[in-house]
Design brief:
It is an enzyme of class 1 (oxidoreductase). The chain is an alpha/beta fold. The chain has helices at about 50-70, 70-90, 90-100, 105-120, 160-170, 185-195, 215-220, 235-245, 270-280, 300-310, 330-340, 345-350, 380-385, 400-410, 425-430, 465-470, and strands at about 20, 25, 30-35, 40-45, 130-135, 140-145, 150-155, 175-180, 205, 225-230, 250-255, 260, 290-295, 350-355, 370-375, 390-400, 415-420, 440, 460, 475-480. The strands form five sheets. It has a seven-stranded mixed sheet. A six-stranded mixed sheet has the order 9-8-7-10-11-19, with helices on both faces. The chain starts with 17 loop residues before the first strand and ends with a strand.
Length: about 475
C-alpha cells in the first residue's frame, strides 16, 4: 500500500473536466449541479456531446487489446494502486460527496471507506477456466473473455460506491471502462477519473459528464460492448430497449420495494435499533433500504411505538452537520416526487405514527422532508405499492405466514427482502419463499464485494459484484480440443 505522499494531490474545488485518454478535456458548454442541502449551484462541469463520446469510445477501443493481454495479477496491481491513490485523497472526496449528494458526514465517510475496500477486495477475485471434460480423445473447457468497451451509467444516490463497484470488476476482467455519472452528482466521478489518469494506461478508465442526453449516446454507440446501469426501473427499460439495436450486453440494477417481515418472537427493543437505520439510511434513497415493514400482529403495537422512538431520534441536517443522520432528498426532481407521495397522507386519510406532510417554511433552503411512518395503510395504497425513495414508509400487520409471503411478493419489484426471528430455521424457510435477488435473516442491506447483488422481476437483469458479477463483464466461450484425429 502506498503512502499519501506517493500520489499527487487533487484540487477538489475547481477544474472539473472530462477525463479522455488520461487528459483533462473541456467542452464548449458547461452545466452546474445543485447542493441539495442549500440549493446553491455548485461547480461548472462539462456538457459532453457526440464528439466527446466518439473520442472516448475510440480511445477505449484502441486501449482494449493491450489491457486484456495483461494477466489478472497485473490488472489487479493497477486496481490496488488506484485504491491507494483514492485513499490518499479521501478527505477532499468526502467534502465533495457531502456537497453533491447532501450526505451527512457519517454517510459520506462510510460510502468512501466501503468503496475503497471494495476496489481492494475486488482485485483479489479471479475467474478460472472451467474444465468440463478431459479424456484421451478430447478436452472441453469454458472460458470467460473480456468484452471490450464497457460503460457504467451511475445514479446520484451512491455516486462513488456504485461507480467504483462497476469500474473495478470491468477493468479486472480485462475491459476498458467509461464512467457516466448522474447529472445530479458528477463531481466525485470526475475527480476519481482524474486520480485514475495517474494510475491506469491511457484509455483504460475515462469519465464523461453531461445531461440526460448523454446516456443514449452510449447505448446507441456501435463500439460499446456492454452497458451496466443502476437506476430506476422505468429508465432501465429504456436502456434495455436502446441496447437491443446493437445487441449490447447489459446489466440492470434497478429499483426495489424491499419487504421486511418481523416474527412475534423477536426482542423488539433490539430489532427496532437495527431496522431503523436500514429503513431510513440516506433518507430512504437506497434501492435496498427497507421499504415495507410487516410486523406480526401480536407485537405490532409494541413494535410500532418503539420504532417511532428510534426514528424520532434521527437528526435531520445538511452535509456540514456532524450529528445528522438524515440528509436532504438529493435533487429537486426527486424532492417533488416524494412530496407528491406525502400529499397522499391527507387525501387518503393515512394514519401517521410520526412525521407527516411537510410544512412550508418561507426562506428555508434544502430538499428536506420529515422522516415519516404510516401506520397500517391498505395494501393497495401508493405508499405500499410504489417505491418512495424518500424518508417515508409503511408499517403493516400480518398474522399468517402464507398471507404475508403473498403480500410481500405482490409487487413487480424483487430486489431484497429480510426475515427477523429467533427461530433461524423458520426464518430461513420463509426467506426462501420470497421473490428477491437478495434475502437476509436478522439483517438487511448487508453487502460484500464477494457476494453478488441484483434483482428479480422489474428490479433488474443480471447481478453486480463477486464472481457472478465479474463473469457478467465477460463473454463465455466454449473451447473444444480434439487430441486425436
Amino acid at each position: 500500500m502506498g503512502s499519501a505522499a506517493d500520489f499527487p494531490k487533487i484540487d477538489f474545488t475547481s477544474n472539473f473536466q472530462n477525463i479522455i485518454n488520461n487528459a483533462l478535456s473541456s467542452t464548449p458548454e458547461t452545466r452546474q449541479a445543485v447542493d441539495p442541502s442549500t440549493e446553491e449551484l455548485l461547480y461548472h462541469v462539462p456538457l459532453s456531446k457526440q464528439a466527446d463520446v466518439d473520442k472516448a469510445v475510440s480511445v477505449a477501443k484502441a486501449a482494449f487489446p493491450a489491457w486484456k493481454a495483461l494477466s489478472y495479477d497485473d490488472r489487479a496491481g493497477y486496481l490496488g494502486r488506484y485504491a491507494d491513490a483514492i485513499e490518499a485523497n479521501v478527505s477532499g472526496l468526502q467534502e465533495l460527496l457531502m456537497k453533491e449528494a447532501g450526505k451527512p458526514v457519517s454517510n459520506a465517510a462510510g460510502e468512501l471507506q466501503f468503496a475503497i475496500a471494495h476496489v481492494r477486495e475486488t482485485a483479489k477475485l479471479r475467474i478460472e477456466d472451467d474444465l468440463i471434460e478431459d479424456t484421451e480423445e478430447r478436452r472441453a473447457t469454458v472460458r470467460y473473455l473480456p468484452m471490450g468497451v464497457g460503460v457504467g451509467i451511475i445514479p446520484w444516490n451512491y455516486p462513488v460506491l456504485l461507480g467504483l463497484g462497476k469500474l473495478g470488476p470491468a477493468v479486472l476482467a480485462g475491459n476498458t471502462f467509461i464512467w457516466k455519472p448522474s447529472p445530479f452528482s458528477p463531481y466525485t466521478a470526475l475527480k476519481l477519473g482524474e486520480i485514475a489518469a495517474q494510475i491506469f494506461p491511457p484509455g483504460v478508465v475515462q469519465v464523461l459528464s453531461g445531461d440526460e442526453s448523454l446516456g443514449p449516446l452510449f447505448t446507441a454507440h456501435p463500439d460499446v460492448a456492454k452497458i451496466s446501469f443502476t437506476g430506476s426501473s422505468a429508465t432501465g427499460k429504456k436502456v434495455m430497449q436502446a441496447c437491443a439495436s446493437t445487441l449490447k450486453r447489459l446489466t440492470l440494477e434497478l429499483g426495489g420495494n424491499d419487504a421486511s417481515i418481523i416474527y412475534d418472537d423477536v426482542d423488539v427493543a433490539q430489532v427496532v435499533q437495527k431496522i431503523g437505520p436500514m429503513a431510513f439510511m440516506h433518507s430512504g434513497q437506497i434501492c435496498m433500504d427497507i421499504k415495507r415493514l410487516y410486523v406480526h400482529e401480536k407485537i405490532y403495537d409494541e413494535f410500532l411505538a418503539a420504532f417511532v422512538q428510534v426514528v424520532k431520534s434521527f437528526k435531520v441536517g445538511g452535509g456540514g452537520d456532524p450529528e445528522a443522520f438524515l440528509g436532504p432528498v438529493q435533487n429537486r426532481m426527486q424532492f417533488e416526487k416524494v412530496k407528491d407521495l406525502y400529499s397522499e397522507i391527507g387525501k387518503q386519510k393515512w394514519q401517521v405514527a410520526t412525521g407527516g406532510e411537510p410544512v412550508a417554511c418561507d426562506g428555508k433552503k434544502g430538499f428536506f422532508l420529515p422522516p415519516t411512518i404510516i401506520d397500517n395503510p391498505p395494501d393497495d395504497s401508493r405508499i405500499v405499492v410504489e417505491e418512495p425513495f424518500g424518508p417515508i414508509m409503511p408499517v403493516l400487520k400480518w398474522s399468517d405466514e402464507d398471507e404475508v409471503v403473498r403480500r410481500a411478493n405482490n409487487t413487480n419489484m424483487g430486489l431484497g427482502a429480510s426475515v427477523w426471528s429467533n427461530d433461524i430455521e423458520k426464518a430461513e424457510r420463509l426467506a426462501r419463499r420470497l421473490e428477491a435477488g437478495s434475502t437476509w435473516v436478522n439483517s438487511h442491506f448487508e453487502l460484500s464485494p464477494y457476494v453478488p447483488f441484483g434483482g428479480h422481476k422489474w428490479s433488474g437483469v443480471g447481478m453486480d459484484w463477486g464472481i457472478v458479477g465479474l463473469k457478467g463483464w465477460c463473454n463465455t466461450q466454449a473451447s473444444w480440443v480434439r487430441k486425436k484425429f
